[in-house]
Write a structure and sequence with these properties.
The model has no long low-confidence stretch (mean pLDDT 89). With 646 residues, the protein is an alpha/beta fold. It is elongated and about 100 Å long. It contains 6 helices and 53 strands. Among the domains are: 137 residues, no CATH class; 239 residues, no CATH class. The strands form 3 sheets. Strands 4-6-52-49-47-50 form a 6-stranded parallel beta barrel.
């Protein structure tokens, strides 16, 4: 009986589908879950890959523009945020490009955790990490950063243990390139346009470590031709050339006042001029009530005398002097106001002279000063200071003798219109002097000289010039000491010579400096060239051991990226870094399209960290152990190609 029952049960198929379904349904559900959630993960990966590509490309562009990984990562995070990727899930890093060509690349990675609820429900993993990444390569810009433009010239030539390093740009010559034994050129590219390939008998032209070298015969166009900044800067030369000395204030009348120990005569003279005076010990106190104008003749002091001249007076007071103010006593202090001084200011004998803030219209003196006449200020005292902000209009020049100090103004809205003395100088200084011109950065403020800025005999001196939009100098700019340049354009209708008559870098404000300026552009017309010495015939020269020259071009404005501009009118007056002029750092375009540029005597020129130097001359020559280096692609063009490579 039982045998028949089991046989019948086994043969009965009416419940098999239900049993099989019970066993297979979880498997089917799991497979559907896996397919569905795996497919969604693939969609997430595709979307994240799009974001990673965009972020890597944007990050690379940001790094090209700023050389900053901080800025690069900020841009990468912003791109991620715009596409809904949390900042903790996206990251970027600067790495070697996976192409292996020696370039750098920005590598972006996105890690996205994708939940798997269906898979988890059947006992599988609860989530999976989806990883997407992209590489954007910073392709090396092979534009020339050291360029010789004259096809009839010698091109780029090295001799005597010299070296050129251009690890991210090319050496370009429209003539020959010569690297004889004992010299080296390290670069990613050499463009030449001579009949023969570059001369390197000892294989002196090499690629930087990890990079390749490309040598091509090609004509290089002037990369600055038609540049609006160059055009604007050189066009201003004609305006500067027309600058002349301002007129004498034209003051007449007034009674001369001699501050000495004789009280009666001094008090009578002051009374005639509308003021009063009292004397105590060796000090005169002058009081002038109201705003005037008060009229005086010549002002002189006796030995040991101190004068306090209306120090509590109104800033609107006007003081007229038909002759000079001559301080050979101990000290003179003047209150604020407007000063019209027909015969100039003369100091001497260790004196201290101070003026409050105001307007100063100063004529020239007929007395001998610096071996000449016609100076508006002849300072051989100890200190001469003017408060500020102040406005200065001077018929003649300014002379600050050896070891003395002058401060012109304070604050940022001073103005300077300075004429020339009989010797052609608007400013001259002796050894060890210290002179400061406060800033002139207001819209209506100017910095203007009708003659030379001449510190050629001022070894050991310190000169601080105003920050101003334009510095117009209708003459030569020569210095033998330390010079601190305020930002702005310096248009020099003549030559620029650093150490051409001796001298060198000194300690100014605690820093060893030859010449230093940030946000500056120097423009030389070569209307005059250096008359003698190793720099003879040049329009720009750093010489005689004049070290620690650091000049950085503006980063914005008309002359952005332009640090020195030579003649563009066809003049062959060139530039030189000579005689141990070491530690020169230039950031921007150094541009002498028709003049040769030479380095000699152990000089060195390069650019600072994260800065660019583009060195352009009609020809470029290095001799005698010199070095020239540029660590950037090109200062004249901010563009550099970015390519997604993986």
């Amino acid at each position: 009986m039982w045998k028949s029952f089991f046989k019948a049960l086994i043969g009965d198929r009416r419940g098999s589908v239900t049993v099989i379904s019970a066993f297979t349904l979880p498997v089917v559900i799991g497979m559907v879950a896996l397919v569905s959630e795996y497919g969604f993960s693939l969609l997430t990966k595709v979307e994240n890959q799009r974001v990673a590509d965009a972020a890597a490309y944007a990050g690379a562009l940001a790094y090209n523009a700023t050389s900053s990984t901080t800025t690069m990562n900020a841009v990468i995070a912003n791109v991620g945020a715009l596409d809904g990727v949390a900042s903790g899930n996206i990251s970027g890093v600067l790495v070697a490009s996976p192409t292996g060509d020696g370039s750098q690349a920005v590598h972006v990675t996105i890690n996205s955790v994708q939940p798997l609820p269906l898979v988890s429900a059947i006992g599988g993993l609860g989530s999976v990490t989806v990883v997407s990444s992209a590489y954007a390569e910073l392709k090396a810009n092979t534009q020339g950063c050291i360029v010789a433009l004259n096809q009839a010239g010698t091109g780029v030539t090295l001799s005597g243990g010299t070296s050129i390093t251009a690890s991210a740009c090319a050496i370009a010559s429209d003539a020959a390139v010569s690297a004889p034994c004992g010299t080296t050129i390290t670069t990613i590219g050499v463009d030449y346009y001579s009949a023969s390939a570059p001369s390197e008998p000892c294989t002196g032209i090499v690629a930087p470590s990890g990079k390749s070298l490309k040598i091509s015969k090609t004509l290089t166009a002037d990369p600055m031709a038609g540049n609006t900044g160059v055009t604007a800067a050189t066009a201003r030369i004609s305006t500067v050339a027309a600058i002349t000395s301002p007129a004498n204030p034209g003051v007449s009348g007034g009674t001369a006042v001699s501050f000495a120990y004789s009280q009666a005569a001094t008090q009578a003279a002051l009374a005639a001029d509308g003021c009063s005076g009292s004397f105590s010990g060796n000090t005169w106190t002058v009081t002038c009530s109201g705003s005037g104008p008060f009229h005086f003749g010549a002002i002189t002091t006796g030995g040991g005398i101190t004068v306090n001249f209306n120090t509590g007076g109104s800033a609107s007071a006007v003081y007229d002097f038909s002759s000079s103010i001559n301080n050979t006593g101990t000290a003179m202090t003047f209150g604020p106001g407007t000063y019209n001084i027909d015969g100039g200011i003369i100091t001497g004998g260790g004196t201290t002279t101070a003026f409050g803030a105001g307007t100063f219209n100063i004529g020239s003196s007929s007395a001998s000063c610096n071996g000449s006449t016609g100076y508006s200020i002849c300072h051989s005292g100890s200190t001469l200071t003017f408060g500020g902000p102040s406005t200065f209009t001077m018929q003649g020049g300014i002379y600050n003798s050896g070891g003395e100090k002058i401060v012109f103004g304070s604050g940022s809205t001073n103005s300077f219109v300075i004429g020339a003395a009989a010797d052609g100088n608007s400013f001259a200084a002796g050894g060890g002097s210290n002179t400061t011109f406060a800033d002139a950065t207001g819209v209506s403020n100017v910095f203007q000289m009708a003659g030379n800025l001449n510190v050629s005999s001022g070894g050991g001196s310190c000169l601080s010039l105003s920050a101003a939009a334009q510095h117009d100098i209708n003459g030569n700019f020569v210095t033998a000491g330390g010079t601190l340049l305020g930002s702005g354009v310096y248009t020099v209708n003549g030559y620029i010579g650093l150490g051409t008559n001796g001298g060198g870098d000194v300690t100014c404000n605690g820093v060893s400096v030859g010449m230093s300026g940030t946000g500056v552009t120097l423009v030389t017309s070569a209307a005059h060239t250096i008359p003698s010495g190793t720099c003879q015939g040049l329009s720009f020269c750093v010489a005689a051991g004049y070290s620690n020259v650091t000049l950085t071009a503006p980063t914005s404005g008309t002359t952005a990226n332009l640090v020195v501009i030579g003649p563009t009118n066809g003049s062959t007056a060139g530039a030189s870094f000579a005689e141990g002029a070491s530690n020169t750092s230039l950031s921007g375009v150094f541009y002498f399209p028709t003049g040769p540029v030479t380095l000699s005597g152990g000089s060195s020129v390069g650019n600072g960290t994260n800065q660019c130097l583009e060195f352009i001359g009609s020809q470029v020559a290095l001799t005698g152990g010199t070095t020239l280096a540029s660590s950037c692609a090109s200062a004249s063009s901010s563009s550099s190609s970015v390519v997604l490579v993986q």
